[in-house]
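Revision sheet: structure tokens.
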Amino acid sequence: MATMAELARVHTDLDEDDIAQLHRLIAGWGMLSDFCFADLLLYAEVAHSGAAKFVVLGQVRPSTNQTVYGEDLVGRIAAESERPLVAQAWRLGEVVEGEDTVTSSGDRARVQCIPVNHRGRRIAILARVSAATEGRRRGELERVYLETFERFARMLVSGDYPFAGDGAFPPQDGPRVGDGVMVVDEERRVSYASPNAVTALHRMGVLSNTTGMRLDELGIDAPGIARAFATQLPQSEEIGAPDVIVGVRCLPLIEHHRVTGAVLLVRDISELRRRDRLLVTMDATIREVHHRVKNNLQTISSLLRLQARREPAGSGRTALEEAERRIRSIALIHEILSREPGDAVDLNEIVVQLVRVAEEGVFSSDVAVRFRVHGDGGVLPADIATPLGVVLTELLTNAAEHAFPSGWSQPEGANVQVWLRNTGTELSVRVHDNGVGWPAGFDIARTTSLGLSIARSLVVSQLNGTLEMFNDHGAVAKLRIPVARAAALPRA
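Predicted:
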């Protein structure tokens, strides 16, 4: 389905600044829908269509009331005859209200069409659509919420809403209308507090009546309110003691270019912040565990290296050196995990360090081997990265030690290249050298090499992948590993 920006570019003559302004409106219009207890539709005029037509750029349903629409209308194009109130508001540049047929089944509803102005010109119409019900007496909460919506509607017409800048976008875990609402007047005194807002204040120890009082007079330090009045921009902050934390988002109400009050959306986020602290503590504990595992593995690696130096040249010394390299490759992964938040690592960072380990094995060789890494392996969880690190160590070490025997030469020199590709569901790794290639009749399933046997076993049994080895102007080792578990991990 096309995005709002794509629909605007295809059907309208709105420029990028206009589209950005509509993005800001849509980012927070769930609040407007909740305040007016109605569905909201965003219309823009279709360009170069001859007769007036309007395309629906956005749609939102209220969480405080039932929706009028059971269908998705985004992308629909309506002629003036189908949406006469929208067309009238567009032509007059004024708020227009009335009843209209709003669904394909012929249902009628109350419709309020509000011009959205930006830089002195109309860019859209915001249509508020609510069920056509008989009049009834409204409670205080409903009356205050509807009055608040009307104030925002006037700001839409004057071009003062949505607010400019980053502050126009509400925080992802920010408070919503259903969490609690407070309205303050021009002197920053509370004129209304919803029941949920009163409950949040009670949690903070404020038990007295808040009406007519400023928050600082109630013992609440909320400097964001003063900043919102001074800057005419929304402000978000957290107030309260460590055990009771309330998130506050202050949205100034502007008329004739001055602040005449503000809406405070409040939410008790004490439990949310407690979980955040637990996650931080858990993350620090996990990193400390990885750090200690790395230290222990490095100690074992050092002991094996010392023992290997005492052994005479031969199979025993070679076995100790190979074991030391394998343990060092696992230690490298734990070292990376000890530095990064979470339990995931960047595969490219691992490969770069494993290449350095392989390079150490060719210092005494007559052939200078160059290693290169291409592509992006993405971010992998530790349970994939750890055995994969051992596999890559074996493949790189094997290429460095056996691909370029004494007396081998090529005009381009000795090269070992690693190609990485992560589709989100499968990781492909290709290790390709330009050396002598695999021996004739080589079969990884019947190899006597301990290192290659370890690599194959880890790929098949732990990583549920496949490992192919063939010749293509040198030896190629290609492995494929399913990584669907890692697809959702963000890249650092």
